[in-house]
UniProtKB/TrEMBL annotation:
Residues 7-91 form the SnoaL-like domain. This is SnoaL-like domain-containing protein. InterPro entries: NTF2-like_dom_sf, SnoaL-like. Pfam families: SnoaL_2.
Length: 96
């Protein structure tokens, strides 16, 4: 999914995210349409990602990365996804 997002192919999100997706970040709404809207706005910031570590255990995937925006802002992020039937059903993040 990240390849599609980095290429701006937001129309691919339904292939990877269930409709009633649960978002645990209180600043982002829950549901697949909210994910689509979030990325429509976020990709305008022209993010560049450097993956530091990626691992999975059971139904959970962890991605640690550095995100640099076009304005020079840099964040270190841990994305945590819970997956069922090859689709994202739940998401948490920690941003430094």
């Amino acid at each position: 999914m990240s390849t599609y997002l980095l290429n701006g192919e937001i129309d691919k999100i339904p292939e990877y995210v269930i409709e009633d997706y649960i978002q645990h970040n209180p600043k982002v709404e829950t549901g697949r349409e909210a994910v689509i809207n979030f990325f429509k706005n976020f990709l305008q910031l022209k993010p560049k990602f450097e993956i530091i570590n990626l691992c999975s255990e059971g139904d959970t995937v962890y991605i640690f990365h550095k995100c640099t925006l076009a304005n020079g802002s840099i964040n270190k992020v841990c994305d945590i996804f819970r997956v069922e039937n090859h689709k994202i059903v739940e998401y948490w993040d920690v941003i430094e």
